[in-house]
Design goal:
- Belongs to the complex I subunit 2 family.
- It holds the Pfam family Proton_antipo_M.
- It catalyses: a plastoquinone + NADPH + (n+1) H(+)(in) = a plastoquinol + NADP(+) + n H(+)(out); a plastoquinone + NADH + (n+1) H(+)(in) = a plastoquinol + NAD(+) + n H(+)(out).
- It is a single chain.
- With 522 residues, this protein is an all-alpha fold.
- It has a domain at 301-494.
- It contains 21 helices and four strands.
- A hairpin with a 5-residue loop joins strand 3 (511-513) and strand 4.
- Helix 4 (78-105) packs parallel to helix 14 (326-357) and helix 13 (302-323) packs parallel to helix 16.
Amino acid sequence: MDFTTLAAQLNTGVILPEGIVIITLLVVLIGDLIVGRQSSQWTPYVAIAGLLAAVGALYWQWDITNPISFLGSFNGDALSVVFRGIVALSAALTILMSIRYVEQSGTALAEFLMILLTATIGGMFLSGANELVTIFISLETLSISSYLLTGYMKRDPRSNEAALKYLLIGASSSAVFLYGVSLLYGLSGGETRLDAIANAMAANNAAGIGLVISLVFVIAGIAFKISAVPFHQWTPDVYEGSPTPVVAFLSVGSKAAGFALAIRLLVSAYPLVSDQWHFVFTALTILSMILGNVVALAQTSMKRLLAYSSIAQAGFVMIGLIAGTEAGYSSMIFYLLVYLFMNLGGFTCVILFSLRTGTDQITEYSGLYQKDPLLTLCLSICLLSLGGIPPLAGFFGKIYLFWAGWQAGAYGLVLLGLITSVISIYYYIRVVKMMVVKEPHEMSDAVKNYPPIRWDLPGLRPLQVSLAIALVATSLAGILSNPLFSLANRSVELTPMLQATTTATPAIRSVSVQPNLSVAAD
């Protein structure tokens, strides 16, 4: 094989965005080694610039002619482009909100950035991995980096406890997932590429008990990554004990990579047991929506409340996966796009409040509007959007998911989703009421001692920028949602893997907001 043929088969241009992130990681690493602690003045902005450059490279690869690279190990199709973009954007916003937080904790910022960029690389590769070895290596790169980030605050016992729990449960999850894919490898006769596995299974008609066992183990590994009940036990403790910026990344970037893995692996490698994995995910969806929303009612910590909210949101997104239609996959992508901004916006507000008061207890938010109206407005909008209040982005995301599920015949799931959404609105509005409705004499001690609002302190300007981005995106992504709907629909239309499996349920082509805030879909 000559060099030209080898280069054509490798097709390395497909992983240009990941290459940009790797180069950025090396620049941050070498810069920190040369300059030392003073590198924290510029390394975060280099990291953000590299991530945005990777998103730009993804834009130019949107309709790439040949998306297969590295002999079929990586697929850069439109589906992976969108999910890789979500992972990169979540990392960029996480860096903006983490600069002040990490510096105030007294730990090294450059090391934090390097681990976060490594996790981003793992998530981006996982979003397009098309071969079992690539999937596992990408998954472990993301997971191990997440363990390190969780325990990054070495002086905080809660961070150490969270990291230990996450490591032990995550290692078990990885072992279970690896056993599932090893069974898949054996049943397919030694194939590792997903399309080759599916062809071998179909040729041998291997839809037996072995394939079902493999499916159960693989779903257990995926469910851990997306925090689906009953594989959610790590989520509340890890969210509460971890550094808040790390939690923000895990709740969006890691979850998006998990859903990308679920779509690609289940649709490509398990078509013979499609009914079985739809049944299992239906059970996971029901449990996640019920437990996530009901248990969130009793929480007293904002981080634990957002942890159970994240579990419930995973249940909503899985409705699109269960639908298995073009509209179902499009609704998943659209919801994850808007979830990126509203969830990271909520965590940005929690970070800012904890930096100024040193607490994240819900009762300590009482009367906050009197001391910090901007923070109150931003947190209220993000929480109401997570609850699905119109005309915010979360409302249109849930409408699209429920519409896709209804069209696919998942009537019970949609009705349950509507009921649990009402429950979620209660605990979100409870926080908003705590901030806004309380009288001056009911103000909490933390708010009474609230420091003067200053944005000129080191690291607070980037936090302010991330707050503004989340606020604007959450507010306008619902009212001006057509571009995001078009992006989600086109990503499914341009992905052959999904087009070969979806039924003839049409996706929403356009959504407009009328003066009476109604949704018009055709």
